[in-house]
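Saturday, quiet lab. Running sequence design on the structure tokens for the scaffold JK sent over.
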């Protein structure tokens, strides 16, 4: 690959874009999609060729080799190469759950390893696009090699606006929030302009602001470092978050909103949902398409789809509380339960035994699977609602599909997203900090029945705006073209 890139350099000018994702699937997926889009931008770039290098941790790369066909991916995208660096942890380290604190501590010290990767590259970097929460090391390396740094925010604009204020919150002792203090959780946030009319509460701040989270100081340090980037790329669209995007411009002179990234293409856009499927889809998890046959047997709009994302590890009693709520709602459900997502609390059963019990008790009422092609599931006519952890990728995919949500956030930006869905955009219900079968039952019934008509007006409006934004001449399509022009302008 290095030799090929060297030959490209000899034959003409090259824009070499280097990517640094945060090593978690929810962050890697949008960054891979952006890399794909830039790799397809040859026609837009004229005589300048665009080469892509994606730098992953060795642990992440090994997962890619197991769960995806990287050889085929690179054959399809010959101008994309993958390089790796060690994250300082042994291969068997879990990196999530109880191992997360050690994981983020290790990520604070990866700058020397990144430096070695930059030294190994035959083609000098034109620009460095780093995940916003990998900024400390990215800034250090970008400054040493005198490479323009662009920050990619894989979360929404509202979260970004809040994140930019959190260093001051920390200095003034406003965070961390004591999660056992209901009065504190229900206190309005008055220090951040633009949130007043929506009664943002302290419980709506990012989850790492809570006392049980270990990531607070790490994330806030990354946000401070990200302010040194020369531009900000956000996976959102103008029509959804224009007021917040405008406010962020006081921190960044260049902002490119290019979402929903999962359905953005440089080729001619169509109304066929399959046209935006990326070859990176499902690249970190094997998708089980058999659930689509089960959905085919269900009535239109009758199914509640349930998924808590790729990282959550929840106590077994939480799963059973949700199970009771789903069963009592009387609605068929498709529920994603990853084998490693169950944390057994009774000390008797294993996670596999808990999962087997859930599957057995769900027969005839719902289907439990380990993973699904989520975009296809949300687009299926049988799906009427999404009970979600409100990760930003899932939220955008639901908006694009026109599916209302029940939001049960678990960590990070999910708490902000849940507030936005329920109270700002009014395209779902905010169920944060509740795990009660009676509440779950009522919200499922309301979403698929009694309150569906009133909520679908907003759902359909934002669905149409999302789809228009990624069409030729849509706001996100234009901003992607502007981003490409900006990168080309950095070539000496």
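Result came back. Writing it out in full:
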């Amino acid at each position: 690959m290095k030799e090929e890139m060297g030959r490209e350099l000899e034959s003409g000018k090259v824009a070499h874009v280097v990517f640094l994702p945060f090593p978690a699937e929810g962050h890697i997926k949008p960054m891979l999609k952006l890399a794909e889009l830039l790799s397809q931008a040859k026609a837009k770039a004229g005589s300048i060729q665009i080469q892509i290098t994606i730098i992953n941790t060795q642990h992440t790369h090994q997962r890619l080799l197991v769960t995806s066909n990287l050889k085929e991916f690179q054959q399809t995208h010959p101008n994309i190469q993958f390089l790796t660096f060690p994250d300082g942890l042994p291969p068997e380290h879990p990196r999530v759950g109880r191992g997360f604190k050690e994981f983020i501590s290790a990520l604070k010290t990866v700058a020397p390893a990144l430096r070695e990767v930059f030294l190994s590259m035959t083609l000098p970097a034109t620009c460095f696009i780093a995940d916003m929460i990998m900024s400390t090391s990215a800034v250090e390396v970008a400054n040493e090699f005198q490479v323009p740094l662009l920050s990619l925010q894989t979360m929404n604009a509202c979260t970004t606006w809040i994140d930019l204020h959190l260093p001051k919150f920390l200095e003034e002792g406003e965070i961390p929030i004591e999660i056992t203090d209901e009065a504190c959780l229900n206190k309005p946030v008055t220090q951040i302009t633009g949130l007043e009319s929506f009664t943002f509460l302290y419980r709506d701040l990012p989850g790492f602001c809570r006392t049980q989270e270990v990531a607070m100081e790490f994330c806030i340090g990354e946000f401070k470092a990200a302010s040194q980037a020369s531009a900000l790329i956000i996976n959102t669209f103008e029509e959804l978050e224009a007021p917040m995007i405008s406010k962020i411009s006081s921190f960044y002179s260049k902002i490119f909103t290019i979402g929903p990234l999962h359905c953005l293409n440089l080729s001619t856009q169509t109304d066929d949902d399959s046209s935006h499927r990326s070859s990176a889809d499902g690249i970190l998890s094997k998708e089980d398409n058999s659930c689509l046959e089960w959905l085919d047997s269900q009535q239109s709009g009758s199914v509640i789809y349930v998924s808590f994302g790729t990282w959550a590890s929840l106590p077994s009693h939480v799963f059973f509380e949700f199970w009771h709520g789903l069963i009592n709602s009387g609605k068929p459900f498709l529920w994603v339960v990853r084998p490693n997502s169950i944390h057994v609390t009774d000390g008797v059963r294993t996670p596999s035994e808990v999962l087997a019990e859930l599957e057995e008790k769900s027969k005839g009422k719902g289907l439990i699977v380990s993973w699904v092609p989520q975009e296809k599931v949300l687009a299926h006519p049988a799906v009427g609602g999404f009970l979600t952890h409100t990760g930003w990728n899932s939220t955008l995919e639901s908006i694009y599909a026109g599916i209302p949500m029940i939001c049960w956030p678990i960590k990070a930006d999910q708490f902000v997203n849940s507030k936005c869905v329920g109270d700002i955009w009014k395209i779902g219900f905010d169920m944060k900090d509740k795990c009660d079968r009676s509440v779950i039952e009522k919200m499922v019934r309301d979403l698929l029945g009694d309150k569906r008509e009133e909520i679908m007006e907003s759902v359909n409006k934002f669905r149409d705006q999302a789809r228009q934004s990624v069409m030729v001449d849509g706001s996100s399509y234009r901003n992607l073209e502007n981003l490409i022009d900006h990168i080309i302008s950095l070539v000496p």
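Notes for JK: The longest strand covers residues 49-57. The chain has two domains: 2-269+470-489, 290-467. Ask whether to fix the surface positions before the next round.
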